[in-house]
From TrEMBL:
<feature type="signal peptide">
    <location>
        <begin position="1"/>
        <end position="27"/>
    </location>
</feature>
<feature type="compositionally biased region" description="Polar residues">
    <location>
        <begin position="149"/>
        <end position="158"/>
    </location>
</feature>
<feature type="compositionally biased region" description="Low complexity">
    <location>
        <begin position="76"/>
        <end position="98"/>
    </location>
</feature>
<dbReference type="InterPro" id="IPR025392">
    <property type="entry name" value="DUF4124"/>
</dbReference>
<dbReference type="Pfam" id="PF13511">
    <property type="entry name" value="DUF4124"/>
</dbReference>
<protein>
    <recommendedName>
        <fullName>DUF4124 domain-containing protein</fullName>
    </recommendedName>
</protein>
<feature type="domain" description="DUF4124">
    <location>
        <begin position="17"/>
        <end position="56"/>
    </location>
</feature>
<keyword id="KW-0732">Signal</keyword>
<feature type="region of interest" description="Disordered">
    <location>
        <begin position="65"/>
        <end position="178"/>
    </location>
</feature>
<feature type="compositionally biased region" description="Basic and acidic residues">
    <location>
        <begin position="115"/>
        <end position="142"/>
    </location>
</feature>
Amino acid sequence: MKRSTAHIKLVTLAALACLCLAATAQADSQWQWRDGRGRMVYSDIPPPPSVPAASVIKAPGRFAGSLRPIEPPGGSPAAAASPAGVAAATQAAPVPAAKGNGNVKAEPVASADEAFEKRRAARAKAEADQAAKDQAAQERQARCAQSRNYATSLQQNRRIAVSMPDGSPRQLNDDERQAELQRVTATLEQNCA
């Protein structure tokens, strides 16, 4: 019984290792680029010609951003096929200088981060502007509702009192009530239509 359990575990482990290798091989053979709308696209076929080379993030068998085919030093494919051509290509190939923290492509990453931060800041600003507009609209609706209620009170001949400079209340007479109703109606038409 122990042998069969160990055998099953070994077979399972081997199957998982094969799956991991297949997934790694598939990930190495994928293209990655940003489309015209800025969305990330993953595919096993190259991007269409309309996608600029700067938008391609990853190409199979090449480093990110290096999409030009590697040319042999002699310039001909025959020279590259010969063992001497391969040795010369490996010796003469320029090695990019590492910058700062060892990142070969520090500048594009920084510019991508900067672009992301700009988009995020623009989105946050747009959301803040929209929130301010929504708040102003709610306050305007509240003022309009209050003005409509006041106009209704004036039309129904309810007693309306105003405060005098000394703080004492004084009730409006009919002429003052009509003038106040006209003022409130004009304000409602102008601001709450």
